[in-house]
Specification:
Layout lengths: L2 H85 L6
């Protein structure tokens, strides 16, 4: 094998390796970009879930609070009725 053949093989190998490394860096860069996008998508999904959960909880709490307020109003009315009943005195006919 002549020196020119060895040199040609060496240059070819270096070119192949350089091409491989460039393609590898490109793949790695593309994968990193895709992972970053997926991370952002996941954060957005989690945020959407959180917002939805808050809305559902708020709606549930509003219903529960309204129920409690209704019961409190009924209690106040019954207490007033009780106090009125306690305050009643016998009146001769």
């Amino acid at each position: 094998m002549s020196i020119l053949d060895k040199l040609s093989k060496g240059v070819g190998k270096a070119a192949d390796q350089a091409k491989f490394e460039a393609e590898k860096r490109l793949r790695i860069s593309r994968l990193n970009d895709e992972l970053s996008k997926l991370d952002r998508d996941l954060e957005q999904a989690a945020l959407a879930i959180g917002k939805k959960a808050i809305k559902l909880r708020v709606a549930e709490l509003e219903d529960l609070i309204q129920d409690a307020e209704t019961i409190e109003a009924q209690i106040a009315a019954k207490k007033a009725e009780l106090e009125k009943a306690k305050a009643e005195e016998f009146k001769e006919p």
